[in-house]
Write a structure and sequence with these properties.
Blueprint lengths: L9 H19 L2 H11 L2 H6 L6 E2 L16 E6 L6 E9 L8 H18 L7 E8 L34 E4 L12 H13 L7 H5 L8 H21 L6 H12 L3 H5 L8 H4 L4 H20 L4 H8 L4 H13 L3 H8 L9
Parallel strand pairs: 3-4, 4-5
Antiparallel strand pairs: 1-2, 2-3
Helix pairs in contact: 1-5, 1-7, 1-13, 5-7, 11-13
Length: about 350
């Protein structure tokens, strides 16, 4: 059951959105999952032109300087089969966007940054862009996709003035999918199902969203993937003042893990955000945000050094923690995050 969420500050809204951004980057950032997504949801003409076996993550450090907006979407370099260049494939994640109006300016910014970097690197053949928008709005988009012309002045004939370069893009609308009609490998279908669950799916859909787990033969992989998926869902629910029902989760997992289900989820769904949600308790908010930052770090870098953990837990300023949460997203390494935190390297916990 959903409950109305209290009005949140701008910084808290950004923190909520980051839960989904981190999830998408974590799951679709894996090349196998990304390729699987392209195979089943991308334009067939694009798929026919590229060599799927040679796809690699593309660097994005050249987009934006320190302190400026940096690319937060997924970018992959896709070599062409004919060897004559690359296609730069970008997944743009739009969480519950009311429209696609802001997409065209973003695409022009991305293309400009990518080409500018390639020109500086001395490349004579620039990468061809391919954009696919993964959208989780409550209703699917209707009609033609917006273009940059929608932002520009029009002449007497109603057509935009000037000479335009229109960047085309594809859109994948998550709410139009039925769990039984999802295609692709089990991890991809799990990711799409959990994303739908996190962004407002019905309670009774939860067990069905987990069914692809049964297709993963490696038990250790199945357990670890389940834990990480549920942790993401729990964080998303908590951010929206909702909770995962442990009994419902246990019921959903029992057919998949049999007698190991209860043991596996023990303590997994214990949220640490009670004080954070309590109105007027600044220390509680700071503690909740600190726990969320630590969870983000664990998800992104797989480990949290002892010194970093202690430093974050000692912080009591909610605004400073909001800023630190953004640095988790922007940092490409633990060392880069440590600089933002203002600490020297520390001994790892593992």
């Amino acid at each position: 059951m959903k409950s109305k969420s209290p009005k949140r500050s701008t910084s808290e809204q950004k923190l909520v959105g980051n839960v989904y951004d981190i999830f998408v980057k974590w799951i679709f950032g894996q090349i196998v999952v990304f390729v699987d997504f392209l195979l089943f949801y991308a334009n067939p003409k694009f798929i026919d032109a590229i060599d799927l076996t040679k796809i690699q993550p593309a660097p994005t450090h050249y987009i934006g300087k320190v302190g400026d907006e940096r690319i937060v979407d997924l970018v992959f370099q896709c070599p062409l089969k004919n060897g004559n260049g690359n296609v730069m494939a970008v997944i743009i994640f739009e969480h519950q966007s009311g429209s696609l109006k802001k997409i065209p300016p973003k695409l022009h910014k991305y293309v400009s940054a990518i080409w500018d970097a390639e020109i500086k690197e001395g490349k004579k053949v620039l990468s061809a862009p391919y954009f696919i928008v993964l959208r989780t709005a409550k209703k699917p988009h209707r009609g033609a996709y917006p273009t940059i012309a929608d932002w520009l002045p029009k002449g007497p004939d109603g057509k935009p003035l000037g000479k335009l370069v229109v960047i085309e893009y594809d859109v994948v609308d998550l709410p139009t999918w039925d769990f039984r009609k999802l295609v692709g490998g089990p991890v991809l279908r799990l990711a799409l199902g959990m994303l739908h669950k996190m962004t407002g799916g019905r309670e009774d859909e939860f067990p069905e969203a987990l069914l692809p787990l049964r297709e993963i033969a490696d038990e250790e992989q199945r357990v670890e993937l389940t834990k990480e998926l549920l942790q993401f869902v729990d964080k998303a629910f908590t951010a929206h003042n909702r909770r995962l029902d442990e009994a419902k989760v246990s019921e959903a997992l029992n057919p998949i893990f049999q007698d190991k289900g209860k043991t596996m989820i023990k303590g997994l769904l214990e949220t640490k955000f009670d004080e954070w949600k309590a109105e007027g308790k600044a220390e509680g908010k700071a503690e909740g945000k600190a726990e969320m930052i630590l969870a983000f770090l664990q998800t992104k870098f797989r480990r949290v050094p002892i010194g970093i953990e202690k430093a974050i837990r000692q912080m009591t300023d909610p605004i400073a923690l909001d800023s630190l949460a953004v640095h988790v997203l922007r940092s490409d390494s633990l060392g880069e995050f440590e600089k933002a935190l203002g600490k020297r390297p520390h001994r790892s916990t593992g």
